[in-house]
Each structure stands twice: as C-alpha cells, then as structure tokens.
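Quick one from the shared queue. A colleague (R.T.) flagged Lipoprotein signal peptidase as missing a structural entry in our internal table.

Convert sequence to structure tokens.
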Amino acid sequence: MAKSVSSAKTARSTARAGGRTGASPARFSLWIAFGFLILILDQATKFWFERHLDPGDFVPVIDGFFNLTLAHNYGAAFSFLASMGGWQRWLFSAIALAVIVVALRLLWKHSRQTLFALSLTLILSGALGNLIDRSLWGYVIDFLDFYLGTWHWPAFNIADTAICLGAAGIIIDELIGVSKERS
C-alpha cells in the first residue's frame, strides 16, 4: 500500500514538472530573484506609508470600497493575538523562519514545477517581508484597507497578498495534480 501511494505521488510530481523533476540551480536562482523583487516592493511600500501617514490616517482611493491607511499589526492575520503583551512577536517570528526554511528547501527541490515554485516564492517573500517588519519594529506595517459601508476587511500589505496568492497557488497546483491523476 505504501509503495503505491509513493508511486502515485512520484507520478503526480513528474506530471506537474512536465516530466522533469529534481533541482535546477538556474531556475532556483530565477525564483529567488523574483522573490527579492516582491520583497523590495513590499518593503518600499511599507517604508513609504510609514513616512507619509500616521497610524489611523487614511487616504480615500475608491469611496465606499478602498482606502490607503497606516496600521501597525502586533499580531498575526486579522490581528490574531495582537494584545497579548509582546510574546507573540517571537512566536510569529519563529513560525515565519520555519516557513522560510521549508519553502526554500521545497523551492530548491521543485524549482522546475512552475506553479508550485511560483507559489512557494510568493509565500517565501511574504513571510520574509513580514519577518523583517517584526524584527525591526515589533509589528507588521499594513496599509491596504478594503471595506463596504462600515464593514472593513483587516488592513493588509504586499507581503500578506503574496502569502495568500501563494497559498491559493499551492491549492490549485494540488487540484491540477489530482485531476491529472484521475485522467
């Protein structure tokens, strides 16, 4: 039984890679370069908002739907554990470091699998962007504020967007792999 599961995973991995598996230093380097571009965009936008707005200030962009604002998030997603006294900074930093290490290893191993590698690169750059914030400031800088009426989605940033897109990409990649297995 274990052998057939392993064979199915290998076949799916090979199918995703277009028949190619294994590390590709050149492709890995390209993914890392792309990740650094995302990281630079994330850090540059955070720097700009931190210098031009005070926390709580907002600039309407699309009335009734979208503002630019400055928020300091001491917690995780949706300000989870934000008011816990500071220990959460170290917990979320440790989680981010673990995600970065795992994503780098997987990216090296699967750099030829375009959707999977892109997804890992987005997660990697997003985790690193928010880790930099936590390390330097003790909070994550958020500035994108979407809302309808009085209901506001929690403010977020480029790193958060990259992480969400990367997670969605991994789900799509898995669904494609499962679909190909059934064909």
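The chain has one domain: 25-182.
The longest helix spans residues 25-52.
Added to the table.
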